[in-house]
Design goal:
The complex is a heterodimer of chains A (114) and B (111).
Chain A: E1 3-6, E2 11-14, E3 19-21, E4 23-26, E5 32-38, E6 44-50, E7 56-59, E8 62-65, E9 75-77, E10 86-93, E11 102-104, E12 108-113
Chain B: E1 5-7, E2 10-13, E3 19-24, E4 31-37, E5 44-50, E6 53-56, E7 65-68, E8 75-79, E9 88-96, E10 99-102, E11 106-110
Parallel strand pairs in B: 2-11
Antiparallel strand pairs in B: 1-3, 3-8, 4-5, 4-9, 5-6, 7-8, 9-10, 9-11
Classes of the chains: A mainly beta (114), B mainly beta (111).
């Protein structure tokens, strides 16, 4: 079946530190991969995506590369800010039949301290 | 433009009550999804509509859960005879191309 596994949180970093949140997946077919972010008190927002192997998604200083050989889509940022504190979800979507439903990981809480 | 909206934002129900949760998708989006997010977990798929057709309801946890989208726009998720295990945030998303846009969710608490 299809599944997503994320590193467990919480992840606590100081401002300007380097961030990596690991995400690996299992999928039948060729998935699209996503990172969503949920800020405190807000809904899920798309952060970045990649639709095929070796694609790199990027947004707001965050990056993730679709690695088919390691079935991974790790999220990175070179210098985190306090405002990046949120819950991050890795997700995949496999087009089959008539649905593109998302399958999410359990989420990783990031806390950035000044 | 306006995003996905959901109402109510919060709902408290007594065990055994019926509830109805509303989703207004982004105008023109054909595809609509419902997800359930338990506390501390990632969202889990419930059901999917393409226009008014419910094409996938494999994630609905029991026959107490029912969803509709009669005119291919607004959707309603109904839960009959609510149980405590139904307490969760219910998320609606509408999709264009391959990107889903989420509403703020309805937090349901069943006492």
């Amino acid at each position: 079946g299809n599944s997503v596994t994320q590193m467990e949180g919480p992840v606590t970093l100081s401002e300007e530190a380097f961030l990596t949140i690991n995400c690996t997946y299992t999928a039948t077919g060729y998935p699209s991969l996503f990172w969503y972010v949920q800020y405190p008190g807000e809904g899920l927002q798309l952060l970045l995506k990649a639709t095929k192997a070796d694609d790199k998604g990027s947004n707001k200083g965050f990056e993730a590369t679709y690695r088919k050989e390691t079935t991974s889509f790790h999220l990175e940022k070179g210098s985190v800010q306090v405002s990046d504190s949120a819950v991050y979800f890795c997700a995949l979507s496999v087009r089959s039949s008539n649905t593109g439903k998302l399958i999410f990981g359990q989420g990783t809480t990031l806390q950035v301290k000044p | 433009g306006a995003g996905v909206s959901q109402s109510p934002r919060y709902k408290v129900a007594k065990r055994g009550q019926d509830v109805a949760l509303r989703c207004d998708p982004i105008s023109g989006h054909v595809s609509l999804f419902w997800y359930q997010q338990a506390l501390g977990q990632g969202p889990e798929f419930l059901t999917y509509f393409q226009n008014e057709a419910q094409l996938d309801k494999s994630g609905l946890p029991s026959d107490r859960f029912f969803a509709e989208r009669p005119e291919g726009s607004v959707s309603t998720l109904k839960i009959q005879r609510t149980q405590q295990e139904d307490s969760a945030v219910y998320l609606c998303a509408s999709m264009t191309i391959d990107t889903q846009y989420f509403g703020p969710g309805t937090r349901l608490t069943v006492l």
